[in-house]
Amino acid sequence: MSENERAALGLSDAERVEQGMRVRREVLSDAHVDRANAAITDFTADFQDFITRTAWGDIWSRPGLDRRSRSVAVLTAMIALGHHDEFEMHVRAARRNGLTVAEIKEVILQAGLYCGVPAANSAFHLAKRVLEELGEA
Predict the structure, then answer these.
(1) DSSP state of 65
(2) Among 127, 78, 120, which residue's Cα sits nearest to residue 100?
(3) Rounded CA separation 135/55 (Å)
(4) Integer angstrom CA distances of residue 119 from 23, 69, 73, 113
(5) What is the pLDDT at residue 10?
(6) How far out from the chain centre does Cα 127 lie?
(7) CA pair distance 33, 109, nearest whole angstrom
(8) Which residues make Cβ contacts (< 8 Å) with residue 121, sequence separation at least 6?
(9) Are 48 and 37 in contact (CB under 8 A)?
């Protein structure tokens, strides 16, 4: 275990939330996080805390992979599982994390081989829509 990983284990919940919110904003954008926070209800508050603290504060903050690599892994997982809304969000995040349009295309092609042609076909359709919104397709 690296020094960074050991240090991360010593963070308080509040520090993990703070770190998670910083990373979440850097990856997804302030606008996205502000919209998500504005939509928090009593019913969803615990889940939002959980993903900020755990997904963003623990996993996305680990030093073992850079954000580009994490984006490749997430895009592939979203394609494989058919999580279309999350896939679109993470196409935007992948661009923020430095993946090029060509690299996103390669991720989808690679996923098509291992996740299936229908999954890749849906992913291309969704990615094209997102990239058009960003003015990049």
Answers:
(1) S
(2) 127
(3) 29
(4) 29, 21, 15, 10
(5) 80
(6) 14
(7) 29
(8) 112
(9) yes
Listed residue (44, 43, 46, 22) closest to 33, CA to CA = 22
Q: Convert the pLDDT of each residue in 17-69 to its tens digit.
A: 999 999 999 999 999 999 999 999 999 999 999 999 999 999 999 999 999 99
* Number of neighbours of residue 80 by Cβ within 10 angstroms: 14
From 110, 104, 126, 115, select the one nearest 80 (Cα to Cα). Answer: 115
Check pLDDT > 90 for residue 137.
Answer: no
H helices present in 58-116, as ranges = 67-81, 84-96, 101-115
Specify whether the CB–CB gap between 82 and 49 falls below 8 A. no
Spatial separation of the C-alpha atoms in residues 71 and 112, rounded to whole Å: 17
**44 contacts 79 by C-beta, under 8 angstroms:** no
pLDDT digits (tens, 9 = 90+) for 92-127: 999 999 999 999 999 999 999 999 999 999 999 999
pTM: 0.88
